[in-house]
Amino acid sequence: MKNNHMKKIGILLIAALITSVAAASVLALFLKSTDKVENIFTPAVSANPLINETFRNNLKEDVSIEITDKGYPVYVRCAIVVNWKDKNGNVRIENPIEDTDYILEIGGDWTKKDDGFYYYNSPIQTGNTSPFIVKCEPANESPYTEYFLSVNIISQTIQAVGTTDEGDIPAHMDGWKADLQHCSQN
What we know:
Order of helices and strands: HEEEEEEEEH
Distance between the termini: 95 Å
Number of helices: 2
Radius of gyration: 32 Å
Number of strands: 8
Strand content: 25-35%
Shape: elongated
Largest sheet: 4 strands, antiparallel
């Protein structure tokens, strides 16, 4: 009886080994014969806009924002950073004051919100340009020897179509917390 029991265990072990080898062979064949699938999904990311600007007599004029990526309409917001800078790029701690140290004229389709950003009042399509800074010029001579007015623009875009996963908040409200539907009225 003990011998019979050992034969049964031996047969079960051999059957288990044969089943494992067969399963491994089938899996190897399946993995080898299956073509690799490339993930061609690309997220909907909008490239930062191109900032076109003209300098005349050290004055920044005719600054426009151009949407260069291919795709959907986007909202654009820009921040203007104004500093006193020397020829080596060193920045003074004291910032110039608008309407005292410099005069800034913004295009009519832009609205400055409480967060300090200027928002274009409507979505912009790919390839379109919107005038942003009409002119920025010093109001007086720099109060600091060898420092000049430096005006830099930081821009961002966010899709103008779509909502959150729940479908209840527009993308610009979710991403920027900015109500752009009523931007031109602010």
